[in-house]
From TrEMBL:
EC number(s) per entry: 2.8.1.10
Protein name (database record): Thiazole synthase
UniProt lineage: Bacteria, Bacillati, Cyanobacteriota, Cyanophyceae, Nodosilineales
Compartments where located: Cytoplasm
Main subcellular location of this protein, as a coarse class: cytoplasm
UniProt function note: Catalyzes the rearrangement of 1-deoxy-D-xylulose 5-phosphate (DXP) to produce the thiazole phosphate moiety of thiamine. Sulfur is provided by the thiocarboxylate moiety of the carrier protein ThiS. In vitro, sulfur can be provided by H(2)S.
Domain Thiazole synthase ThiG: 400-651
FAD dependent oxidoreductase domain ranges (all copies): 6-339
Pathway: Cofactor biosynthesis; thiamine diphosphate biosynthesis
Gene that this sequence comes from: thiO
GO molecular function, one term: glycine oxidase activity
Catalytic reaction equation(s): glycine + O2 + H2O = glyoxylate + H2O2 + NH4(+); [ThiS sulfur-carrier protein]-C-terminal-Gly-aminoethanethioate + 2-iminoacetate + 1-deoxy-D-xylulose 5-phosphate = [ThiS sulfur-carrier protein]-C-terminal Gly-Gly + 2-[(2R,5Z)-2-carboxy-4-methylthiazol-5(2H)-ylidene]ethyl phosphate + 2 H2O + H(+)
């Protein structure tokens, strides 16, 4: 059995070491348990310090990141002074080149940024793509060499006297009366007065917290010998789906894929090809640079991509995990806030935004936080269940699209799920029979879509290929044809369905009415059953129906926004005039909003984000299936008319008079 320390830190990666150093400097005795130092996510990063370049939305995470960036110079100076080692801190600035002109190049930001036009951009950094229209310059951001930082933190911890136990696997955390009593490991038990869980992507193995691995592949290039400059890049390049990080020693780091594939190791040809293609597109000079190294790692990610920081249900256990893409940047502030919380009992107000219980309802407990049913539940099909009075009918005709019948009126999507198991269980729980698949993302093995086509049983589910990601009519038509072939390869020989999306606007993701109409006309001529995604425009909906579309799919509010039904009046007009099924698509965030859309008279719903990004996707899938059925039944039953005045529910005749 290990000795008793003031604080026992579970996890010897970036966060665990940073917290241990802070606590030891405050006078605590600290033990760190590390299973595999080299597997820590900190080794697989690029070391960017980029809260502005990454376009983090205003809110607690951006505030946390900005506070941590401000701490960085003093923090690394103290580490270097303590160890005599460098961490490669370089406030080099970040350049974010743009292939399309932003809507507001002079828009405000929380920190200085400057717009460079095409000519200024090329002078600022020669060799960039000629297709670029300009770029943002963020002078206050920079980088640290993450591998040097990890080595320096380990050395600092040992120099200060932290008991660093390596090669130790934690098997369980024993609790009693809301207290951790000991930690069971592969080499015995450890006890402490206080405990910190900083186990990164592996934390869920110890407590039922919603932390999942998000795989990232990376590689590095080397500036060729004899090149005119030892390092041609003077700053980080932050592009579309790629960042290029120059090191002062001549190395250039490319990253990183974002893959929800569990703990699936190794680099893949598709992942490396994706990184190289995007990097060369941005900075063509790289095509002649030799590849130096390839690697991968697992980011610890939560459903809302915010870290879990602060108190836990156990009074002597503090949480510090789930930092997703911002671990390197957030190390100083995490160590500071957690150290202050443990040693001084001072909870920074900002910690409340990152509390563990944001993933729980009021009735939830930690033990039930991520409890999944052993067998996926099937929602009650309310319209098919007879009521006790045989004179009351709840029968309903099936949903018919292009001559094909479906019992369920809920369509679901496959994007944004943390893993395939959650996706399968959620879709099964929803009762959905029509499932959309983004053709381009499957064809290109985009992050989170590798193996998606094979992950579902297409004998039980009707595939709805969609043209997500297409920005023009021509592109959508081409992708629709790929989708039809993909359906055939998966055994649906007669599937000519396509969900048509033409979305050139990357900010608001609103469909292009002209491009949608043009693509729909061509696809209908070529024999497709077209289900077009549109804004809630009654005139466009009627025109699409007239040219032969088999449904119209007006959005309730912008994709993934969870704003609910913001276009009710126009959707009601579409429903009133349509002779084809009306499917409300996008924006629904809760079962009550799903029921509302069905009560309006919609024929079906399409829901993805509200299920996939729910705290419990399986439960939400079931709830959405039930709400869709209930809303349909309510529509068939017919609601009472709205009256200006009250109407007593009990009769006035036969009253007892005093």
């Amino acid at each position: 059995m290990g000795g008793t320390s003031d604080v026992l830190v579970i996890g010897g990666g970036l966060m665990g070491l940073a917290i241990a150093v802070d606590l030891q400097q405050q006078g605590a005795t600290v033990t760190v348990l590390s299973r595999d130092f080299q597997a820590a996510a900190g080794h697989a990063a690029a070391g960017m310090l980029a809260p502005q370049a990454e376009e983090l939305p205003p809110g607690p995470l951006q505030t946390l990141c900005q506070r941590s960036l401000a701490l960085y110079p003093d923090w690394v100076e103290k580490l270097e002074a303590l160890t005599g080692q460098t961490v490669g801190y370089w406030p080099c600035g970040i350049l974010a080149p743009q292939f399309t002109l932003p809507a507001n190049p002079t828009g405000a930001a929380t920190a200085p940024r400057y717009w460079l036009d095409r000519s200024d951009l090329q002078q600022f950094q020669p060799g960039l793509s000629e297709q670029l229209v300009g770029g943002w310059w963020f002078p206050e951001e920079g980088q640290v060499d993450n591998r040097l930082l990890m080595q320096t933190l380990s050395m600092a911890a040992q120099t200060l006297g932290v008991d660093l136990q390596t090669g130790v696997t934690v098997k369980g955390i024993q609790q009693r009366d809301r207290q951790v009593t000991q930690v069971i490991t592969s080499v015995g038990s450890f006890r402490a007065h206080h405990y910190v869980l900083a186990a990164g992507a592996w934390a869920r193995e110890l407590l039922p917290l919603p932390v999942f691995p998000c795989k990232g592949q990376m590689l590095s290039l080397k500036v060729p010998s004899g090149y005119p400059q030892p390092q041609p890049l003077g700053q980080i390049l932050y592009g579309e789906q790629i960042y290029i990080v120059p090191r002062q020693g001549g190395q250039i780091v490319l990253g990183a894929t974002v893959e929800t594939v569990g703990f699936n190791p190794n680099n893949t040809a598709a992942g490396i090809q994706q990184l190289l293609a995007q990097a060369i597109r941005l900075y063509p000079e790289l095509q002649s640079f030799p590849i130096q190294e390839c690697w991968w790692g697992f980011r610890p990610t939560t459903p809302d991509e915010l870290p879990i920081l602060g108190a836990s249900p156990c009074q002597n256990l503090t949480l510090a995990l789930g930092h997703h893409r911002n671990g390197i940047l957030l190390a100083p502030i995490t160590a500071t806030l957690i150290g202050r919380l443990i040693q001084q009992q001072v909870a920074d107000p900002l910690l409340s935004a990152f509390a563990w219980d944001r993933f729980c309802s009021d009735q939830s407990s930690t033990a039930a936080l991520l409890t999944l049913p052993a067998t996926p539940a099937t929602p009650m099909q309310l319209a098919d269940r007879p009521l006790s009075d045989p004179n009351l009918s709840t029968s309903d005709t099936p949903l018919k699209i292009a001559g094909r019948s479906f019992k369920s009126r809920l369509m679901t999507g496959t994007g944004k799920f943390d893993n395939f198991d959650d996706m399968r269980h959620s879709l099964a729980a929803s009762g959905s029979e029509i499932v959309t698949v983004a053709v381009r993302r499957v064809q290109t093995n985009a992050p989170g879509h590798e193996g998606l086509a094979e992950a579902l049983d297409w004998k039980q589910i009707w595939m709805l290929p969609n043209t997500a990601g297409c920005q023009s009519a021509e592109e959508a038509v081409r992708v629709a044809k790929l989708g039809r072939e993909m359906a055939k390869l998966l055994g649906q020989e007669d599937n000519n369905f396509v969900k048509l999306e033409v979305i050139p606007d990357a900010k608001y993701l609103l469909p292009d009415p002209i491009g949608t109409l043009q693509a729909a006309e061509q696809l209908v001529r070529e024999g497709f059953a077209v289900l077009p995604y549109i804004n809630a425009d009654p005139l466009l909906a009627k025109r699409l129906e007239e040219i032969g579309c088999v449904t119209v799919m007006p959005l309730g509010s912008p994709i993934g926004s969870g704003q609910g039904i913001r276009n009710a009046a126009n959707i009601e007009i579409i429903i009133e005039n349509a002779q084809v099924p009306v499917v409300v698509d996008a924006g629904i965030g809760s079962p009550s909003e799903a029921a509302q859309a069905m009560e309006m008279g919609a024929d079906a719903l399409l829901i993805n984000t509200a299920i996939a990004k729910a705290k419990n996707p399986i439960a939400m899938g079931k709830a959405m299936g039930m709400a869709t059925a209930a809303g349909r039944l309510a529509y068939l039953a017919g609601r009472i008319p709205v009256k200006t005045y009250a109407s007593a529910s009990s009769p006035l005749s036969g009253r007892i008079n005093s």
